[in-house]
Hints:
Elements: H1 7-10, E1 13-17, H2 23-28, H3 30-46, E2 51-54, H4 69-81, E3 86-91, H5 95-103
Parallel strand pairs: 1-2, 1-3
Amino acid sequence: MSEKITARHLGRKAILYVRQSSAYQVSHNLESQKLQYAMQDRLRQLGWREIEVIDDDLGRSAAGTVPRAGFERLAYGFLSYAEGCYAAGLALAGLGLARRRKLH
C-alpha cells in the first residue's frame, strides 16, 4: 500500500476498461489486448481484490452513433465513486501512440 492508495481505496471495487475500436484490432492487435487485460495483475499488485473488467466495447468505434454499453458502465462507475462504490478506474489510453513510439 502507498500513501496515495489507502485501505479505504482498497476496500472498494476497481474498474478496468478494455477496448479496441475495430474488429480488425480485436483480431490482429493481440498484444494490445493482452496488455490491457494484464492491468488486472497491476491492480492486484497494488492491493485490490475486487476488480470489475469491462470489455463490452471490444470492436466498437467511438465514432458515430454506435452505442457502447461498456463505456456507459464505466461512466456510471465513476459517478458511483462519489457514492463510495468504486475506488479506481483504469483504461489504457494512447496505446496507439505508445506503439508508434516503440518503432522509433
